[in-house]
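The authors assume throughout that readers already know how a fold can be written as discrete tokens. For illustration, here is how one protein appears when written out as sequence plus structure tokens:
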Amino acid sequence: MNEKGVFIPPSQLFENVRKNALPDENLNETLEKVFRGIEESAAGTASEGDFKGLFDDMDVNSNKLGGSFDERKKRLVRLLNGIGDMGLGSYKDNTIDAFLSFRKYKILSGKGSVSRESAEAKAKSEYEIFKRTQKYVSDFDRSVKGLGQGEDRHERRSCCSAL
């Protein structure tokens, strides 16, 4: 626990809570217990400040989730499943370097020595490229939409032959 700064019992790990969410008649209480447990387990560790109050704004009994307990539970289950289905991958397989490596090219070279004018010029040129791409996509979408709206066969063939 000193290494990670927090302890979560196996029964309170996300996947286990998610797996048991639908049959859990007290899902709201389970989630509150999990949130409280995470905060309390960090007490007295270097990460206490990171976790203290982290879940204060989480109200699993809020009427905004639904008017009845069953409606709130359905929404909470959908939320848990939505988060679980995101496919974020394994934390241990990722690093900040991997996250930053998506930048394969420099957007603006110069590292702090770029003038405002050159930055604006670069932004405008990038926007022009973007705008052309958007116009092209819009024209394509318009052509595809027209395919299903009664154009004759010849027009459809000529439209799609360019593809």
